[in-house]
Amino acid sequence: MTQPTKRMELGISTFLDASPDPVTGEAISHAERMRRAVEEIVLADQVGLDVYGIGEHHRANYAASSPAVILAAAASTTKHIRLSSAVTVLSSADPVRVYQDFATLDGLSNGRAEIMAGRGSFIESFPLFGYSLEDYDELFEEHLELLLAVRASEKVSWRGGHRPAFDNLGIYPRAVQEPLPVWIASGGTPESAVRAGTLGLPITFAIIGGMPERFAPLVSLYKEAAARAGHDPSKLQIASHSHGFISDTNEQAAELYYPSTHAAMNKIGRERGWPPYTRESFDGARSLRGRSMSGIRNMSQRKSFFYARILVWIGSSYMSMSAHCLTEKPFVPLSTSAPRLRRSYTRKLPVWRPTNRSSFIYNDCAQ
Amino acid sequence: MTQPTKRMELGISTFLDASPDPVTGEAISHAERMRRAVEEIVLADQVGLDVYGIGEHHRANYAASSPAVILAAAASTTKHIRLSSAVTVLSSADPVRVYQDFATLDGLSNGRAEIMAGRGSFIESFPLFGYSLEDYDELFEEHLELLLAVRASEKVSWRGGHRPAFDNLGIYPRAVQEPLPVWIASGGTPESAVRAGTLGLPITFAIIGGMPERFAPLVSLYKEAAARAGHDPSKLQIASHSHGFISDTNEQAAELYYPSTHAAMNKIGRERGWPPYTRESFDGARSLRGRSMSGIRNMSQRKSFFYARILVWIGSSYMSMSAHCLTEKPFVPLSTSAPRLRRSYTRKLPVWRPTNRSSFIYNDCAQ
Questions:
Q1: A129 at B interface, C-beta within 8 A
Q2: Which of A227, B20, B62, B108 has the largest CB neighbor count within 10 A?
Q3: B60 touches chain A (CB under 8 A)
Q4: pTM of the predicted protein model
Q5: What is the CATH number of domain B11-362?
Q6: Is B206 helix (H, G, I), strand (E, B) or coil?
Q7: DSSP B92
Q8: What pLDDT sits at residue A25?
Q9: Which residues from chain A sit within 8 angstroms of residue B130, using beta carbons?
């Protein structure tokens, strides 16, 4: 007797990086960057990807501060692809507005919206919207609680420490999906894994530093917390984000992807006091045990299964999908590689039981 | 020598009313209502209307609490039509988020977004987002000031009484249009007219009660305030909103439009202590001097010119366009009447110099 299996899912996420190309110096506008993203979502839908995510930022080099608005632009021209934030910085947002924006997106797309809620990796939104970084964790917990309350019922009463209270007010529109999916985005802290598990919410691990192996214990924590809270383990969903880029050869993938990765990682690294990002870091990440999905299709596929093996002992699985660099003629790598990846993964799916939605690779190459 | 003239503009605005049909009892979901609106925007663009506006509400019978998200769903499938809120309840919104949402819409539509800012006719959003009705006017003034500051420059510092302060922060994405249009929506108070004139902002009068004639002095006030503040009067823009419905005969228009108007006006009237809305009120509004644009095309056109005559002595002009009731097979009245109205108005345009954008009729019939 076999358990029912869900198929794995593949997707792309992006921060809509609009930094100048580090090789050519060319830059595109935020407006052009977001319009290209909309074309990309339409293509991703056509070639069979399952999900497209856009991350909220408030920085000059990223074009997306309002993911729901951008995703909505693809709602009426796509049929199947799920439209997600990746992430919504919930700590510094009003949870009622977040619900309304994504319930609206859910209506427009007839039930394909998702919220991925995170505390935020960048911190610009905190001073901009009047929140204190001292309340970083508390804000997230409180805002998540309110978001889940709004999701659970049309009329809500609310009392909290950081957001004005209200009594028995209706919140509209209501989402088509019941419930509207709310994922927890985690950078890899045990607290996030336990919180998501306890609430029975799906979780996405952003594997953008270190080795993927270190996430295996977090998946354990997540599942244990879920079991303790009485959630059905077969219904939990786990996803991962990783950087990546697919091309015809490993070398070509590396050469095309390195300059923008180098520029982006060093830009962030300077702000955060990281050591300089080098070609060695890049190549290390491309190795089998590394975190980057860059390479040719087979390489990425092999790595995905390697990742899945790391996690399969705890009954979970995940994988990633290539992104493409929009400084190149857009969409060629995506349109040629996605269906093949989709077919090969789909054939293998019964191996990973109970399998999960998972997807996502940051499309962080310049422009 | 003639002054350069702008052509008049025509449009539709809607609150996405999803109340049950008062005749048949049938209701549609919020999701279906907003998807139909997106189809309607696409059609309005094809038939040559100039603007489509969606109003923000937080009530069970209206589907639009996030106008920018809904408008974005039409951004990539339309070419010319301008996409506006009608209105954005600025008093209870964060002006930074409002700018970001509409700058994003502006990018997606390549420069076709507009914000119409109002204090809000309904009050649900105040308790929901933690604002006090005691600050009704002050909140609007302060939020408008911040919105205009964000619109004016990428880096902004802010100190105010009702919204957290911040210092020299960048706000992204930037709008394509410079500046992103910000209209003032007025229900007809002298204060609104003077405020908009002083700031040199375009103004929209919602003529949904009383007689249109009473707006003539407000237009004077608006223009005088603008002149005192040194704004070029030829660059001011004035628009009006009115309810309306066009059909093949006056009688048919009345019969189709009366039930939903009656239901909607009495629903609001019960909350606000208005006298009952009667057939006499409805027919009075349909008369030449009344405020409703319901009727056949010629009737509506004649009334528009009558309105324009009321205002022409102060150098302004405006008109309206029919809406259609979505309980009927959608789009037929719109697609057949819009091009004809557009042509007839366009022929007459040089008469009204300097003419203004103006447009809008509420599409408030049930569903």
A1: yes
A2: B108
A3: yes
A4: 0.86
A5: 3.20.20.30
A6: strand
A7: G
A8: 80
A9: 163-166
